[in-house]
Amino acid sequence: MREAIERVLISEEELEAAVAKIGRQISEDYRGKDPIFVGVLKGCFIFMADLMRHVDIDCSMDFMAVSSYSGTTSTGAVKINKDLSEIIEGRHLILVEDILDSGVTLNYLKNYLMVRKPASIAVATLMDKPARRKADIYADYSCFEIPDAFVVGYGLDYNERYRNLPYIGVLKPEIYS
Ligand code: IMP
Ligand code: MG
Hints:
Blueprint: E1 5-10, H1 12-29, E2 36-41, H2 45-52, E3 60-70, E4 73-82, E5 92-100, H3 104-114, E6 120-128, E7 141-145, E8 151-152, E9 168-171, H4 173-176
Parallel strand pairs: 2-3, 2-5, 5-6, 6-7
Antiparallel strand pairs: 1-9, 3-4, 8-9
Helix pairs in contact: 1-2
Bound molecules: inosinic acid and magnesium ion.
């Protein structure tokens, strides 16, 4: 598994520190607001699990599953594979994403959820690749801004592999070419 990684982009220690910082910031911003954290599966699962342990306010959690990617390039299509189970009308939503790339997925999700009249929608992402943005969307909370490289680990996959790496690594180009 590790032989597929060209280099470590974000170490376990850097992940831990940045995620803790965002958790504390969200706790301050949302104190008394009882937000719902909405994890976007599958990529969010490790980030969200770590993030939530640094959020010390009353809140709830829910998950959605969407698919938009096959391999390393966007198909542009967003499919909802699992919808929310909570009612979100009047609630403060925080969408938790692994990575904001073209922004197509999150833009679609935001519009899709807006119809249900939440009090607010914010975006918390582990990584942001601003160079690749197509949709007009930004992260309210972002742990790392990264260059345009395909990364895996800490929840992120390439064809469902490498999600279990404890760090963020850059995949060797020969793996996906
Ligand atoms: P977007 O719609 O282009 O912003 O794509 C968002 C989704 O694409 C993310 O939630 C990831 O699942 C996937 N994705 C984008 N860039 C990467 C990457 O570098 N590694 C792994 N998955 C990625
Ligand atoms: Mg994802």
